[in-house]
Structures are given as structure tokens and as C-alpha cells.
Amino acid sequence: MLRGNDIRLDVHEGAICVQKKNIPVVVEFDKSDGVCKTKEGYVSYKASDAIVMGVECEQWPIERRKFDATYEPVSPTRAGENGEYVKKPSPVYALQMQEPFYVIMSCGDNHIEGEAGDWLLEYGKNDYGIVSQSIFEKTYEDVENNL
């Protein structure tokens, strides 16, 4: 199976630049360590990390420090409270994969798997994710500027 972490999307000719649409997601901050069952596999998280629920009721955890830097609350939710949040505009590279693949998570102790047709996203150096085709269509849009 192809390892997505080995693909540099910033130089890949098939990659496109996208960003998340301004769609609110529901977020809960967990009080204890745990494991979240995502569409792509199981991902562990620490107490106070954000558990995000997306447009197809899919869930995924985000490290608290990273969440605070990339999401903002939707009123009446206040920062750090459970409630609705939107992702701050941030262009990333994306590549629709033509074969099954996997990604080692940036925390290093989990991996998730994608199918042919899913999208590989590069959020930053050594920070990759997987988004299914149906969710990608609903939640991402092309951006004209380059990273």
C-alpha cells in the first residue's frame, strides 16, 4: 500500500491548492485520554483535545494546541467551550489518490487508511490527512493563490 507521507504535494503536478469552506462543525473537548474511530481508522487523543464532528457525522480528534491555532468559535460559543467552530482560512495542498494508501499521523503512533478516490491533504511539514471524496466535495474549495 502506498504511504502518503512520502508524497510531497507542494511539488506534485497533480496536487491542487484548496481550503476548507466556512462550514461550522460541532466540537467537544474531551476530559480524558481516549481513542476516536474515524472513517479512516482509529486515532488516539489526549485529555482536552478537540473531537470534531463533520458534515457526514464523521469524527476526528485534533490536538488542542493545533485546534486553538486553526479554528475559531461561532457565536454564542466562546473559545475553549464545547459548541460550533469554523476553520480559519488556510490553504493546503490536496491530491486525489488513484489507489489505496495510508498516512502516519503527525503524533507518530497512529496511521489511517484511504481508498482510491479519497484525497490526501498536506496541512504542513510532516502533517498529512485523508478526506473521503464525498466529504471533500462538501467541505473544500479551490483557491487561486499558491501556498
The structural class is mainly beta
The share of residues in helices is: under 10%
- Radius of gyration based on Cα positions: 15 Å
Q: Runs with pLDDT <50, length 5+?
A: none
Number of DSSP helices?
Answer: 2
**Biggest β-sheet, characterized?**
5 strands, antiparallel
H-E order: EEEEEEEHEEEEEEEHE
Number of strands: 15
**Could you give the order of strands across the largest sheet?**
14-13-10-2-15
Determine the strand fraction and express it as a percent band.
35-45%
| Mean pLDDT metric | 93
Short description:
With 147 residues, the chain is mainly β. It is 10% helix and 44% strand. It is built from two helices and 15 strands.
What does it look like?
- With 147 residues, the chain is mostly beta strands.
- Helices cover 10% and strands 44% of the residues.
- It is built from two helices and 15 strands.
- The protein is globular.
- The relative contact order is 0.26.
What is this structure's SSE topology?
Layout: E1 2-3, E2 16-20, E3 25-29, E4 34-38, E5 41-45, E6 50-53, E7 59-62, H1 64-70, E8 71-73, E9 83-87, E10 92-96, E11 101-104, E12 111-114, E13 119-124, E14 127-131, H2 133-139, E15 140-142
Parallel strand pairs: 1-11
Antiparallel strand pairs: 2-10, 2-15, 3-6, 3-9, 4-5, 6-7, 8-9, 10-13, 11-12, 13-14
Features:
147 residues; globular; 10% helix; 5-stranded antiparallel β-sheet; 44% strand; mainly beta; single chain
